[in-house]
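Researcher: I'd like a structural prediction for the single chain below. Treat it as a standalone chain; there are no partners to consider.
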Amino acid sequence: MHIIHAHIKVKPEFRTEYLDKVKELIKSSQEEEGNISYRLYEDTIHQNTFIMLEEWKDRAAIDFHFNTPHFKEWGQKSKEFVQEPTKVKIYEVISQE
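Model: Treating it as a single chain, here is the predicted structure.
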């Protein structure tokens, strides 16, 4: 299993629009075959700072996800919402004890 942490800082003036539009990405991503979990969380201290926590079956599922039309479209659409480039980290689960 692979985990993605995508750290996102949204411009305050785009908060409402971002939260509305990101629902489409989440729904479409959750429907992908290799997706285990895809959820958005907000930092409790820093408003408009989010983390998308994703769980994927394997690296192939992530590669597929990164090439889907809805993900590519979101990449273009979301540029106007964010204060800085999204920081993405990918982890591989090596122990599930």
